[in-house]
Amino acid sequence: MSRFLVRLLINALALWLTTLLVAGVRVVPFAPGDTLAVVLTYLLVALVFGVVNGFIGNLVRIVAFPLYILTLGLIALVVNALLLMLVAWLTGLLGFGLVVDGFWWGVLGAVVLAILSWLISIVLRPVLGSSARR
């Protein structure tokens, strides 16, 4: 359970940093101006992103495996962008959450989000100990 919470916090932090770096990706909180609402919004979007990436993302990667081989993995950029846009659509149904301005912003946002999540995980690995390595 603690590993799940750590991953959730890492994804929320990476998402926050992504919204600061990529102009076409932003998060609309359910109560603008309220700091707690903004933090909870990032945590909820990170949770939705984790669920979508865990279930739908893995299913797409399995089905599209021949395309991954054919394109030498470049199709992963498209898949990750579409997953990010799916998260934006799902959270948009709730009236708050992630907003992606277009497909290419989704590609850039997905790349930046993946790199930031990876970097944060590397930085926190010595602090978290062996639980982060699994």
TrEMBL record:
Transmembrane residues, as ranges? 37-60, 67-90, 102-124
* Superkingdom of origin organism: Bacteria
Write out the entry's keywords from A to Z: Membrane, Transmembrane, Transmembrane helix
InterPro entries per record: Phage_holin_4_2
Q: Does the keyword Repeat apply?
A: no
UniProt protein name: Putative membrane protein
Q: Which organism is it from?
A: Homoserinimonas aerilata
Q: What is the lineage of its organism?
A: Bacteria, Bacillati, Actinomycetota, Actinomycetes, Micrococcales
